[in-house]
Write a structure and sequence with these properties.
Layout lengths: L20 E4 H7 L3 E6 L11 H14 L4 E7 L3 H13 L2 E7 L9 H8 L3 E5 L1 H21 L4 E3 L10 H18 L6 E5 L3 H12 L6 E5 L4 H19 L11 E3 L12 H14 L8 H13 L8 E6 L3 H5 L2 H6 L2
Parallel strand pairs: 2-10, 3-4, 3-6, 4-5, 7-8, 7-10, 8-9
Antiparallel strand pairs: 1-2
């Protein structure tokens, strides 16, 4: 059956696509469960690597069409999205201002923060309580300041996760349909880290549009399942309201596993670092402790618990994050 006709909005060619789908033979054999495949979205670029670039292709196309010369966005101090926005803004000749949330011990300049500074982004740092209580006000006040200077600002939500950003992972779902056909597989599930909800919204819609025939399971790295059900549904409704797609987003199932959050966003326990180390040693694949490491650890634990008994193949979306790992090198050194 042919997928319903979908017309993508204007986008910029910022990512290296399509990304490969590769089997993880050794770790799959070690776990004794389904064969795990990894969609290598850590290879979407170099300094702009990771899942955020797919969303930003559409978001930044809108910004340029509106005549924007300044991008304002927000996230944690080691935000992959903020780093990608800074790098891509520099590539496009745009000013970038990052509103960053402090996370624990954040005195050193490294990882994503270092790259954001290197790309020339202006950075404003706020305590976690202030950031959470006043982010909307911060967006508004900085936008007003740039307007007063004669600039044309464009505000990007956290993670570029909104109705426009959804298109990034609808595009990925189209690639997955071709990947599955080429590998002759029908996976039992698609698993990925979910943090701001946009990747999950896009994959969920795309899986329906392109008939992937399996659930999309977001492994939460912060917040609980109820939060992500609401956030993903809100992004899908925003997408539907903007673009009038040929599917009913209210009928899409949203599946979230929230048992592997640990101590909270950006904080991983020794078991996650052990999983990161094990996968690097076994497959030469590097994960991060904020997103992909937590999600892959959750996947391995669910396999061991028998959740995917009878399933032949599973697909894991590697959303990037290597620079966040570098910022926590001390934790990796002390892990088993």
């Amino acid at each position: 059956m042919q997928p319903p006709a979908v017309t993508f909005p204007e986008r910029l060619a910022l990512a290296r696509l399509p990304t490969p789908l590769e089997p993880l033979e050794r770790i799959s054999a070690e776990l004794g469960g389904p064969r795990i495949w990894v969609k290598r979205d850590d290879l979407t670029g170099c300094a702009a690597t990771g899942n955020k670039v797919r969303k930003l292709e559409f978001t930044l196309a809108r910004a340029l069409a509106a005549g924007a010369d300044t991008l304002i966005t927000a996230g944690g101090l080691q935000s992959n999205h903020c780093r990608a926005t800074a790098i891509l803004g520099a590539r496009l000749g745009l000013r970038v201002h990052l509103l960053l949330r402090e996370e624990g011990d954040s005195s050193s300049t490294q990882g994503n923060l270092l790259l954001g500074l290197l790309a020339g982004a202006e950075i404003s740092r706020y305590s976690k309580p202030f950031y959470r209580a006043h982010l909307d006000e911060l967006y508004a006040s900085w936008g007003e300041r740039y307007l007063a200077r004669g600039a044309t600002p464009w505000v990007i939500p956290v993670g570029a996760s909104d109705g426009t950003g959804v298109w990034g992972y609808i595009g990925c779902a189209a690639e997955l349909a071709a990947d599955f056909a080429a590998a002759n597989i029908r996976p039992g599930a698609i698993i990925h880290a979910t943090g701001s909800g946009g990747t999950q919204a896009g994959l969920t819609a795309g899986a329906s549009i392109y008939g992937l025939g399996c659930p999309v399971i977001g492994v939460a790295v912060c917040d609980d399942a109820a939060y992500f059900h609401d956030k993903v549904r809100a992004d899908l409704r925003d997408w539907a309201a903007r673009y009038r797609p040929p599917i009913d987003v209210e009928q899409l199932a949203i599946e979230v596993e929230d048992g592997y959050i640990g101590a909270g966003y950006g904080r991983a326990g020794p078991e996650v670092f052990a999983t990161i180390r094990r996968l690097a040693c076994t497959e030469g694949l590097v994960l991060d402790p904020v997103y992909s490491g937590k999600a892959f650890h959750g996947l391995t634990e669910e396999i061991r618990a028998g959740r995917f008994a009878g399933v032949t193949d599973l697909v894991f979306i590697h959303t990037g994050g290597i620079f966040g790992l570098l910022a926590q090198a001390d934790q990796l050194e002390s892990s088993p």
